Amino acid sequence: MPRNTRRRPTPTHPATEDIDLLDILRALADPTRMTIVRVLRAEPERACGTFPVDVAPSTLSHHFKVLRESGLITQREEANRRFSALRAADLEHRFPGLLDTVLAAHARTAAPAAEPTPTA
Amino acid sequence: MPRNTRRRPTPTHPATEDIDLLDILRALADPTRMTIVRVLRAEPERACGTFPVDVAPSTLSHHFKVLRESGLITQREEANRRFSALRAADLEHRFPGLLDTVLAAHARTAAPAAEPTPTA
Question: What is the pLDDT of residues A43-65, one digit of tens each?
Answer without folding.
Answer: 999 998 899 999 999 999 999 99
